[in-house]
Design goal:
With 438 residues, this protein is mostly helical. The chain contains 16 helices and no strands. It is globular, with a radius of gyration of 28 Å. The protein starts with a helix and ends with a helix.
Length: 438
């Protein structure tokens, strides 16, 4: 099965790169629609795959569609709302967290039915796998979970196609958006490389920490002393992802009042505080023994960490728009970096847990939080440096945009000018007549 998960990750990387290129070259609504339809087909086919090689191929194709969806969705949202996209970006990523919460609830009843059927049948697993796709009577109950999960994808694909057919986004609108967008090609290559590299490292560290902590917190609860039960460890994992989802929902209205840089500052401080609380559990030399004898700090630190991580990714995408135009290619760079973080950092943390002990998860969380904060500070430092040099694209665009807004607010109304001119002529005429009488 490890090959299957790896193939999906590789497909996601390919989809992020190809999707970014397609989104810049063709109509974004069409690309997203085709990606949704392609993912729907793969979800329908997936339950009927009867070999590991077929599973690897189907999951890779599904990963390509999902990678294109993630890349295009972020870019299309920025192109649609521009600087006003902060709450919409937060809402988009809240839906990701909500889907991750709802999907297991949809699948669980069908898994229970499958386990019941497996216990009642005495045929071996090889015969079941070979016969599950031959007749409709032998369709596994879990197949319905795949079909139900594919329905939102199909509806979304039809919706995007409808927008295109109804000309909701005309060629003229798209052209005006491109004309009003900041021209990232005005900056130097050094500027682009530095900004994109810093943001890529930032997202790599953040996504790696999110996936690693959310994936290994159950293992920590089971291996630490005092040991947690399976239900308590599972509830601890749910507390992390639940606080993560609720914080993303709260970030939707909050982002209307706070700039992305302010939100990222709050997130970085929260990650440091949460990881410091988690590390403070261990005061002795024994890595697997919690000094206080209870898990209060573990619960508090986990919830704080989940809340603080929630709005980092969408805020980072919005913050990057202050420096460069987040086009399809730019978004693909960010998502590829995040995917590498998702694959590499959990692998490194897992090996550290095996060699050192469960407390290394908390130490890794603190180290990654510090590195993420350092990268964020470097981004702010680079922005201050390039802001002093008007020849760089992102800072120049922001400066010109502020000047344009200021000049537009100072421009007087033409009607008021006409009324004032008429009043002056009227009073001047009365004064001239009074002088002639005298």
């Amino acid at each position: 099965m490890s090959y299957a998960f790896t193939s999906r990750s590789v497909g996601y990387l390919i989809g992020s790169i190809v999707g970014g290129w397609l989104f810049d070259k063709y109509n974004g609504h069409v690309v997203l629609s085709l990606s949704c339809i392609w993912a729907t087909l793969m979800m329908w086919v997936l339950p009927y795959v009867s070999s590991i090689y077929g599973l690897v191929i189907v999951l890779a194709l599904l990963g390509i569609a999902l990678g294109s969806l993630d890349t295009g969705g972020n870019v299309l949202l920025l192109n649609t709302w521009g600087k006003k996209s902060r709450p919409y970006m937060q809402a988009l990523h809240f839906v990701f967290a909500f889907g991750a919460f709802v999907a297991p609830l949809i699948v669980q009843p069908f898994l229970q039915d499958s386990m019941t059927n497996n216990k009642s049948n005495n045929t071996n697993s090889t015969e079941k796998l070979a016969n599950c796709s031959n007749t409709s009577d032998s369709t596994m109950p879990v197949t319905w979970a795949y079909w139900i999960s594919a329905i939102p994808l199909a509806i979304t694909g039809v919706g995007f196609i409808s927008f295109v057919l109804l000309k909701a986004c005309s060629v003229q609108d798209a052209q005006s958006q491109n004309d009003n967008a900041p021209k990232s090609n005005q900056g130097s290559l050094v500027y682009k490389v530095i900004i994109l590299s810093l943001f890529s490292v930032f997202l790599l560290l953040y996504v790696g920490l999110e996936v690693a902590y959310g994936g290994y917190i159950f293992t920590f609860g089971r291996k630490s002393e005092p040991e947690m039960s399976d239900n308590s460890a599972a509830f601890l994992t749910s507390a992390f992802w639940g606080s993560f989802a609720l914080a993303r929902l709260a970030a939707v209205p909050l982002s209307r009042y706070l700039r992305p840089s302010k939100m990222l500052w709050l997130d970085m401080v929260g990650c440091l505080v949460g990881s410091a609380i988690l590390v403070s559990q261990f005061t002795g030399l024994q890595c697997d023994v919690i000094s206080s004898g209870n898990h209060t700090k573990l619960w508090v630190g986990t919830v704080i960490l989940g809340i603080s991580m929630a709005s980092v990714f969408p805020s980072a995408i919005n913050f990057a728009e202050y420096f460069v135009t987040v086009s399809g290619k730019t978004a693909s760079i960010f998502l590829v970096s995040a995917s590498f973080g998702e694959m590499l950092i959990p692998l490194a943390v897992g090996n550290t847990i095996v060699s050192v002990g469960p407390c290394s998860l908390m130490a890794c969380a603190l180290v990654i939080s510090v590195l993420t904060l350092v990268t964020f500070v470097l981004i702010l430092g680079a922005s201050r440096y390039f802001k002093r040099h008007s020849g760089f694209a992102g800072m120049l665009y922001q400066r010109n945009q502020a000047q344009d807004q200021g000049s537009s607010t100072r421009q007087p109304d033409e009607v008021l000018q006409l009324l004032e001119q008429n009043n002056e002529d009227f009073f001047n005429g009365d004064q001239d007549r009074a002088n002639s009488v005298q």
